[in-house]
Amino acid sequence: MRLKTLTAVMVAGTAALSTTFAMASSPGEATASRGTVTVAQRPALPPSLPRLNVQLPDIPPGETFSEEEMLGWFECTGKNKSPAIKWSGAPAGTKSYLISLFDVDSKTSSGFWHWSTWNIPASTTSLPAGAGTPGDPGLPAPAVLGRTDFGTTGYGGACPPAGDRPHRYVFTVVALDTEDIKVPKDLPMAAVNVVMQSHALAAGYRTVVFGR
Length: 212
What we know:
By secondary structure, the chain is mainly beta. Helices cover about 10% and strands about 30% of the residues. The strands form 3 sheets. Strands 8-6-5-9-10 form a 5-stranded antiparallel β-sheet, covered by helices on one side. A 3-stranded antiparallel β-sheet has the order 3-4-7, with no helix packed on it. β1 and β2 (about 35-40) form a beta hairpin. It is globular and about 45 Å long.
């Protein structure tokens, strides 16, 4: 199948696939209550997949985003800087990594992608703070920064609506069996996940809860 045809098929399925994510606290199906509506979201990867150890050095377990990692536009005044992230435990055969950040509790009812990057070299086991900014030297070549659901490229920080219940932001790191997943960099992350699933060797998760 040609790339253009594959892309068209994946884009067409984005709406149905936009609930795909990997939940850190529970790898099974999760639900998010919306008043009288309950939204089911299924994990992108099976819970039986081997686990990576994922750490956020600047956000210890139980802590939340600082102004550095918050969104820097709309009603938010953060600096929109992706946090440092590190991982370990990749299995033999790992050739690259994919990282994503997903808001499970977005008012879209299907979640919200805040960050994605893939084709990160297998020799890499961490990214410094700010690597999610386009052009930042902390992102090693030939890694690609994908689109957020804001419609921008690179990292988009947390900014749940004022007064909304706390949101769960899930960082996912996936070890892949290929150096290049060969998808357009502007492909929606829900569709990128479709390709990623067939290459996943292991995955690790960290959830950060944040509310204003």
